[in-house]
Amino acid sequence: MSGIFRLSYSKLMGTALLQLILFITVDAQQTAVTFLPHWLPQAQFAGYYAAEKMGFYSAEGLDVKILTGGPGAPVYDALLSNEAQIVSGFLSGAVEARDAGIPLVNVAQITQRSALAFVMRKGSGIERPVDMNGKRIGIWRSGFQELPRTFLKIHQVEPSRIVPINATISLFLKGGIDVLTVMWYNEFHQLYAAGIDTSELNVFFFADYGLDVPEDGLYCTSQYLAQNKEVVNKFVRATMKGWDWAFKNQENALDLVIEQMKQAHVPYNRAHQRWMLNRMKDLMYKNSVLCPPLTREVYQFVNNLLFEQGQIKSLHPFSEFCPMSNSL
Questions:
Q1: What distance in Å separates the CA atoms of residue 114 and residue 205, rounded to the nearest whole number?
Q2: With 50 as the cut, is the pLDDT of residue 290 above it?
Q3: Is there a contact between 89 and 143 (Cβ–Cβ < 8 Å)?
Q4: Which of 187, 196, 236, 324 would give a disulfide with 182, using CB separation of 3.0 to 4.6 Å?
């Protein structure tokens, strides 16, 4: 072996060894974070899938595992057991959980206004909220009950029965219930896809009745935030990049969503997921800003509302619930 060759070979092996050391070092610096969405895979969570697949989490030094959520995976139980370090959930449900003693903190407010509504067929005779008295009302079973029940209390509605709904609109389609709780980005469009034109429905959007409570937010425990504030900041920052990418690359983002739905054996319809992704964009921007932090004003409105309706026992300070935004 010539001297030149030996020198070149040594340099090559040295470079390869250095690259291996750098790779191992970078890999060792990745912080593991488990994230649990509060529902089954769908375009409602496209930004998280994008952040993981496009490497935005990895670029922040995070090794993020996204679990499959849904009725059988309560997010706040997962936090308490450390099965997940960060979860998503409705603001109203998080306020109730905090009141029940779960040390939740809001670290990002994803949606900025309410997407909740009650729908009923026009032939049902329900034209005003008071007309729901004596009717059978379907309300989602898992973490979505606070605002529908508050709506009924405010309008003094006594239904003949409240029917727990898991994850289907079938009971409404078959006439088993008179009123169904829907999300604008999801079940509202499912009804249309099932052959019910919007002109055949009466819709009570909660936002039109003084209950414009934003829903999806990101949560962890106060202890986890205190010990891992920079990790949480990185997760939120990468998540926002994921959402921005998803809105700018919708068809590619839908591919990621459908991949997740297939893996979880969840039925999918691309047109419906496209509708959902576009509605999420409508809900997440406020004054052209993507996901601005939860404000003191909005939190106090929700806190007071749930307290007045007996949904929570105490009023809790904004600084404790939302320590990352306590100057707003």
A1: 8
A2: yes
A3: yes
A4: 187
Long-range contacts of 161-167 (CB under 8 A, 24+ apart): 161/136, 161/137, 162/137, 162/138, 163/136, 163/137, 163/138, 163/139, 164/138, 164/139, 164/140, 165/138, 165/139, 165/140, 165/141, 166/71, 166/140, 166/141, 166/142, 167/40, 167/70, 167/71
Residues 6+ apart with CB under 8 A from 123: none
pLDDT at site 142: 64
Task: Kindly tell me if the per-residue pLDDT of 11 is higher than 50.
Answer: no
| Cα–Cα nearest to 298, from 151, 114, 115 | 114
End-to-end Cα spacing for the chain: 70
Asked if 321 and 106 touch (Cβ cutoff 8 Å), the reply is yes
pLDDT > 90 fraction of the chain, expressed in percent and rounded: 84
> How many Å apart are CA 272 and CA 15, to the nearest integer?
50
Amino acid occupying residue 55: G
Distance (Å, whole) CA 92 – CA 149: 11
**pLDDT value at position 205?**
97
